[in-house]
TrEMBL record:
Residues 56-97 form the Glycine zipper 2TM domain. It comes from Pseudaquabacterium inlustre. This is Glycine zipper 2TM domain-containing protein. The keyword Signal applies. Residues 1-18 form the signal peptide. Keywords: Signal. It holds the Pfam family Rick_17kDa_Anti. The keyword Signal applies. InterPro entries: Gly_zipper_2TM_dom (IPR008816).
Length: 166
């Protein structure tokens, strides 16, 4: 019971880690001007972004495993089992961190208007891309995300967007 509770607590902690989802914008990127470039999708293929191993999972697992192990047996046994618990917890915590930060993603190959090609890997979001789709590449703070082009007729020549008066 205790072991299950500790594993769930560790998994919940690690699940709050960063994501590369195009639908989640970093707080640091909010209220910043972004560069937008028109492009056309050439290919889309599913990929997996490997999970991170920052050490946070191993450290958390080691602490929890050490605490759980040290509460077993008498004085001598509790030290030995605590050390074994810490090592086992570190291994388990590292594996949980890696698995919980792994993301199903897309590699999207696009062609810019000037003929140059770019490949962008991003987590699967709410939009579905297929070859021939008009898209925009939004660059903010060195990070790029792909989004469907909201401008009508964007596959060919972009139509001008009427100015709004305030």
């Amino acid at each position: 019971m205790l072991r299950t509770t500790l594993a769930l607590a560790l998994a919940a902690t690690l699940a709050a880690c960063a994501t590369s989802s195009p639908d989640v914008i970093s707080r640091n990127d909010a209220q910043r001007m972004s560069t937008v470039v028109d492009a056309t999708v050439l290919t889309v293929r599913p990929v997996v972004v490997d999970g991170s191993q920052s050490g946070a999972g191993a450290a958390t697992g080691a602490v929890l495993g050490g605490i759980a192990g040290s509460s077993v047996g008498g004085r001598r046994e509790s030290v030995a089992v605590g050390v074994i618990g810490a090592v086992a917890g570190a291994v388990a915590g590292n594996a949980i961190e890696r698995a919980s930060t792994r993301e199903e993603s897309l590699e999207i190959l696009v062609q810019l208007k000037n003929g140059e090609r770019r490949a962008i890997v991003q987590a699967k979001g709410n939009e579905t891309f297929k070859p021939g789709d008009a898209v925009i590449l939004v660059t903010t703070g060195g990070k790029v995300r792909v989004s469907l082009n909201p401008v009508p007729g964007a596959a060919g020549k972009p139509e001008p967007v009427p100015a709004q008066r305030y």
